[in-house]
Amino acid sequence: NPARKPTTQRRHLNRTFYSFTRLYSMEEEADFNWEEYLEETGATAAPHTAFKHVDISLQSSFQPGMKLEVANKSSPDTYWVATIVTTCGQLLLLRFSGYGDDRKADFWCDVMTAELHPVGWCSQNNKTLQPPEAIKEKYSDWTDFLIQDLTGSRTAPANLLEGPLRGKNTVDLIVEGSVIEVRDLTDPSLYWAARVAQNIGGRLRLRHVGLQDDAHDTWLFYLDVRLRPLGWAQENRLSLEPPAELRGLKSALEWQEALEAARSEAQKHPLPLEVFKDHADLTKHSFRTGMKLEMVSPSEPFHICPVSVTQVYNEHYFQVTVDDLTPEATPLSLVCHSESPGILPVQWCLKNGIGLERPRGYLSQDFDWADYLKQSGTETAPDACFPDAWQSRGFAKDMWLEAVNPVRPAEVCVAQITQVRGRLLWLRLEGLPKSVPECIVDVESMDIFPVGWCETNAYLLTPPLKPVCKYPRISLSHALAPPQPVETIPLNLCEPIAMDTANGRYCCSRIYVNHRCFSGPYLNKGRIAELPQAVGPGKCTLVLKEVLSMLINAAYKPGRVLRELQDVEDQHWDCHEETLKAKYKGKTYRSSIRIVRLAEQIPDFCRKVCGKLQCCPNLFSPVQVTGQCPESCSMQTKTKYTYYYGKKKKLSKPFGGEESLEAKPTRRRKKRKAIFVQKKRRSSAVDYTPAGSPQVECSEAECQLVLERNPLEWSVEDVVTFITSTDCAALANIFQEQDIDGQALLLLTLPTVQECMELKLGPAIKLCHQIERVKVAFYAQYAN
To answer: What contacts 613, CB < 8 A, 6 or more positions away?
Structure first.
């Protein structure tokens, strides 16, 4: 039929395009997984505790020692002052004033549900302040006691106890549109306002007020000393002007109008001052004009160069300029303070075996500091000016982390530490052209992050480039063109196919996808129609892995199909485990699936997989179905299909095609790995706990843990008993050895688990998931 020809050709082209683009981009599109990467390469992640700025960003907005007024449960309608002992997420451990160092009456409360108020709320609202009954007789004059107790103390901010900011972490207080002042790079007395365009876990994309496009956006971590609250410049009698390189973009009137509009907007939604509570206080420096030092190049952080102190502004700030001896030199200057990252004493490079970049215009091939100082008549900055110039903060060679690309600050890359010298790290950024040199960062840099930071904050991470040799060598033959030569893509160009040279037992011919066959309740017929007609020939495991991956992606619910494939096994098969992935509604599912290695076992394997998926046994098979299917599957309905294998044993279809996971056969292979779900979320509070549980389709109620006793009362033995009952039983002895009781358990986080228990990222995440279950149950059952 000529009328059908264009459609037929289009479908053929669609399949051809799908086949080749899928095989070449399949690995690129798949989510980069740190745990798998570190496990496959045997590499080590840099410890989370080495990233001080990230650790601070995870902390609660509430600080130990803060005072607040809390409802007194022992006496209705009365309140009493309490002190925050410690925090754990949105949980606060409180102690009523009057108990001193006695912790027996400490209690937890959820800031989101408990009745908490700032100090002074009771007097403003005519409420009664009354001490708990247990200590009522301890003091004769409680008014005098409170005056002494509250003098010099810090009260919990009212906006964190009520309203839209209630219970939020510090990082979460910074929302898109917040206005902040940014110090100029070259003048410490010059500031200009900027709006927050993005907040990625505390890493802020800032757009100068008055500009609309992102061409001049600046990326800074919220703890950077260049950032100040709106009004800072005016209060400290500093200049408020746009950066010199941007002033020509608008008239002075336009800049001023933009600033006034931003101020008016910020007054309606002010940025809480708590955002700046963790900013480091600058220490006094001892640099003088004319002193020489070494510094990581501010424009190209790939080498270290000589610089000079060209101006001292005050006791906190001074200016350094990169040495340039050429007549046409354009000064490259930067404002620094005593703890600026990347500044080093003279001879630092020589002592650490690092090459020092010669100043431009320096005539001699070999740079020598003694000759250079003599020629210039200058002095070196003493070592006392550089605190902690030799400390590495726990970083070591070959550790892995995530780092900002200095050429494109919006990009964060997988990075490997190639060397550590004192407080400097040399990083090889992955996923970039090989011509990009290793960049140098300070251990205190806020442009480096622990592994998993991007995923936790739902930000794109540039993964390592895939080597060419990794592309599968699988032949794809397409519908409507069976007689033509098979087009192939190499399975593995680096290694020969492992097979028995006598009979090729480990190599199979084609596996056909018979599009006309019944697809069953799990697979989408339309997606099946877009798959190539055949896959192969090639190594059995690789051909089958590709077929199974295509079937998973053609499913209505890929995670469910992945779960079904876990149960496909036979004790007589010679199998190899492969990790398969599925994506569904923003989640990534992973599981180890057993795949046969021998060609003679493929027909049986294919039929059992089809049985599990309740589709026609010939849907994918070593046999091509050219006409009517021998199983007469076209007569079957979409909701019913019956299989007969061996002795006519009937395998029934689960109710509604969505059988609950609890109804699965109880007999499973002992080493079966559960599917873990990694749910991506947009949040600036870093949470390393995996979202979901091994039962990927159970409801929240089914997965919720119910505690028989308050975990705050658990002994060490109780904790060990609980851990033993989970899939982290092998770690129970650690809790015994470290005497971790219930209270300590509730305070554990991923960084502390990794540091104190010396666990790798995978087991640590798995353990934190179980701890999080206890916390959630505690919130629900006992926090109030």
So the answer is: 520, 522, 523, 551, 561, 564, 619
pLDDT digits (tens, 9 = 90+) for 282-309: 899 999 999 999 999 998 999 999 999 9
| 218-264 tens-digit pLDDT | 999 999 999 999 999 999 999 999 999 999 999 999 999 999 999 99
Q: Side chain identity at 297, as an amino acid letter?
A: S
Residue 36's pLDDT is 83
Q: What does R_g of the chain's alpha carbons equal in angstroms? A: 32
DSSP string, 633-698: GGGSBTTB---EETTTEE-PPPGGG---GGGS-S---TTPPPPEEEE----SS---SPSS-SSTT-
The SS3 call for residue 362 is coil
Residue with tokens 């995870």: 58
Q: Which residue has the higher pLDDT, 134 or 641?
A: 134
What backbone torsions phi and psi does residue 690 show, to the nearest 5 degrees? -65, 135
**Positive or negative torsion for Cα 705, 709, 715, 717:** negative
Q: How far apart are CA 540 and CA 510, in angstroms?
A: 10
Supply 73's token pair: 């449960």
The packing angle between helices 540-553 and 602-613, to 10°, is 10
Q: State whether residue 776 is helix, strand or coil.
A: helix
Q: Determine the pLDDT at residue 637.
A: 54
Cβ within 8 Å of residue 637, ≥6 positions away: none
Query: Which amino acid, one-letter code, is at 725?
Result: S
Is the previous residue joined to 537 through a cis bond, with omega within 30 degrees of 0? yes
Contacts for 470 with CB less than 8 Å, ≥ 6 apart: 27, 492, 494
At residue 496, does pLDDT exceed 60? Answer: no
Q: Output phi, psi for 307, to 5 deg.
A: -135, 165
Judge contact between 619 and 514, C-beta under 8 A: yes
Q: Collapsing DSSP states into helix, strand and coil, what is residue 16?
A: helix
**Chain mean pLDDT for the chain:** 79
Which of 472, 659, 642, 637 minimizes the C-alpha distance to 567? 659
Q: If we measure between CA atoms, which residue out of 694, 401, 583 comes closest to residue 30? A: 583
Q: Which tokens belong to 132?
A: 């708990």
Three-state secondary structure call for residue 402:
strand
Nearest to 662 by CA among 692, 691, 695: 695
Strand, helix or coil for residue 430? coil
Which residues, including other chains, have CB under 8 Å from residue 309's CB and lie 6 or more apart? Answer: 287, 288, 289, 290, 291, 292, 293, 318, 319, 320, 381
Total residue length of the chain: 784
Helix (H) or strand (E) holding 229: strand 227-229
Count CB neighbours of 462 within 10 A: 20
The mean-pLDDT minimum among 4-13, 132-141, 499-508 falls in: 4-13
CA distances 470 to 435, 476, 495, 596, 768, Å, are 22, 17, 10, 21, 34
pLDDT reported for residue 674: 35
Contact indicator for 158, 61 with CB cutoff of 8 Å: no
Q: Are 385 and 286 in contact (CB under 8 A)?
A: yes
How far apart CA 31 and CA 653 sit, in angstroms, is 33
CB 147 within 8 A of CB 153: no
Query: Helices 602-613 and 558-565: crossing angle, nearest 10°?
Result: 130
H-run or E-run covering 117: strand 116-117
How does pLDDT run across 630-679, given as a tens digit for each residue?
888 876 654 445 554 333 333 333 333 333 333 333 333 333 333 333 33
Better pLDDT: 492 or 214: 214
Instruction: Dump pLDDT digits (tens) for 762-783.
Output: 788 889 889 988 988 888 888 7
* List of residues 6+ apart from 56 with CB closer than 8 A: 223, 278
Coil, helix or strand for 197?
strand
Amino acid at 152: G
- Predicted pLDDT at 687: 36
Helix axes 761-781, 716-724, angle to 10 degrees: 110
Higher pLDDT residue, 90 or 695? 90
Tokens of 593: 């699936």
